[in-house]
Design a protein that fits this description.
Helix content is about 35%, strand content about 25%. The protein is an alpha/beta fold and about 270 residues long. α4 links the parallel β4 and β5. Bound molecules: NADPH dihydro-nicotinamide-adenine-dinucleotide phosphate (NDP) and ligand LZUJQKHR.
Length: about 270
């Protein structure tokens, strides 16, 4: 049997981290060799995830874990505050970053593309790993060619730190490639309550809803003469992201440079 791909999960006790630990353990081509989390050093991973991990313990030391485990891939679901340092560390050690954490700039992604190429490794930054979300973004970009008036409503659980979501930003970027920058709504409109019209990206409006009960949902609404079109995606649980994470761990072994968006591995 070919060697399995050695995976370290960072943010392993978080909502996405725990799901990723299970997904890696369940895939015959992947091997879970490390679980990093800042607050559970020494605790058995099995105690938190509920799945047997052969005595693996959490570590709070990313450098040590990446080096000692001879990891091939680092999967990161942490926090905008720490993701930059984590990616730099992984690339420095020649470990391929597969990143779901949101909140980095196009300039940072371009710099990581360069450093991945210099190091001769691949990387993935995917604002959304769910295949349905990738299709929603692709269909939205297509629709914008014909219906350029568009607003996005994204809805997430109320523990989410960043707004708008990484998925909404990626959707706006993809649509912006297909339509000219333009104003929307009445030129004289004013907000009686600040922020009522949402964020503005090249004239497109984006609205972020945060409520308990939601997981991750997005509507892209297009308006035309006498009609509207709504393209909607719902992640109803975090398993929805796992096929994309697992695929990325495998695909990232095959190329050099940082890929931004799962669509680049799919289409
Ligand atoms: N690309 C995709 O498909 C998806 C991306 N995401 C993104 O993934 C990220 C994580 O989401 P989620 O799992 O829900 O978040 P959680 O808050 O559940 O988990 C985050 C994990 O990161 C750790 N962490 C947070 N801050 C720090 C820090 N300063 N230093 C070290 N570790 C830290 C947390 O540890 P502690 O508990 O000690 O704070 C926790 O284990 C978010 O950016 C989210 O937007 C989420 C879903 C899908
Ligand atoms: O924080 C989340 O939960 C999610 N974050 C990602 C984003 O910001 O788009 C992906 C998904 O929407 C869930």
């Amino acid at each position: 049997m070919a060697d399995r791909i050695r995976v370290v999960v960072v943010g392993a006790k978080g909502r996405m981290g725990r799901e990723t630990v299970k997904a890696v353990l369940n895939d015959p081509e992947l091997e879970l060799v490390g679980a990093v989390d800042r607050s559970l050093n020494g605790v058995l991973v099995a105690e938190v995830t509920g799945v047997e991990t052969g005595g693996l313990q959490f570590s709070n030391d990313l450098d040590k874990t990446l080096l000692e485990t001879k990891a091939d891939v680092m999967v990161d679901f942490t926090n905008p505050a720490v993701i930059k340092g984590n990616i730099d560390t992984a690339i420095q050690y020649g470990v391929r970053p597969v990143v779901g954490t949101t909140g980095m700039t196009p300039e940072e992604i371009a710099a990581w593309d360069e450093s991945c190429k210099e190091r001769g490794i691949g990387g993935v930054i995917a604002p959304n790993f769910a295949i349905g979300a990738i299709l929603m973004m692709r269909f939205a970009a297509e629709a914008a060619r014909f219906l350029p008036h568009v607003e996005i409503i994204e809805m997430h659980h109320d523990q989410k730190l960043d707004a708008p979501s990484g998925t909404a930003i990626k959707t706006l970027e993809l649509i912006a490639k297909e339509r000219e920058k333009m104003g929307q709504g009445h030129p004289d409109e004013h907000e009686s309550i600040a922020g009522s019209r949402g964020g503005d990206y090249e004239g497109m409006r984006v609205h972020s809803v945060r409520l308990p009960g939601y997981v991750a949902h997005q509507q892209v609404i297009f308006g035309g003469l006498g009609q509207t079109l709504t393209i909607r995606h719902d992640s109803i649980n975090r398993e929805s992201f796992m096929p994309g994470v697992v695929m990325s761990c495998k695909e990232v072994m095959k190329y050099e440079g940082m890929v931004y968006g799962l669509e680049n591995l799919l289409f």
